[in-house]
Description:
By secondary structure, the chain is an alpha+beta fold. The chain is 41% helix and 10% strand. The chain has 5 helices and 5 strands.
Amino acid sequence: EPEWVPVDAEIGCTYEQAVAAIETLGRMHRVFDDKMLSGHEFGFLPATVFDVRNAGHIQGYFTSILGSAQPLVQLLPPGAQATVERMAEGGLGESFERLAQQPLCLCHGDYRTENLRFSAPGRPPAVAVFDWGLVNVARGIADF
């Protein structure tokens, strides 16, 4: 049984830890894919970390606050400003809905170094993941 060590917040993870973390996440996504999810009781989990059923509300809120955020938007490069405008015109909700379309997999929802523990130096690389409070079903690319 490995001894688990956290990542030093000031130094960050090592290259080996980063590779182990990404490989572990990829294996989880592969095991809990569309076929596996459809054959089991995962329907209670939200579709996307924000729950796609809230896409309309999130879109509406984003659109409503855009006016007050204009001083910040004006600091962005022109291409980013155009993206913000497109998101305000419905693009944000659309992107949430697309993340809830197949192919889907089980997503941790908060996959960051603070929620990972790594095997101690000198032991085979292993990753333990905790804090599953934002677990959801979505496209794997949305798992962050």
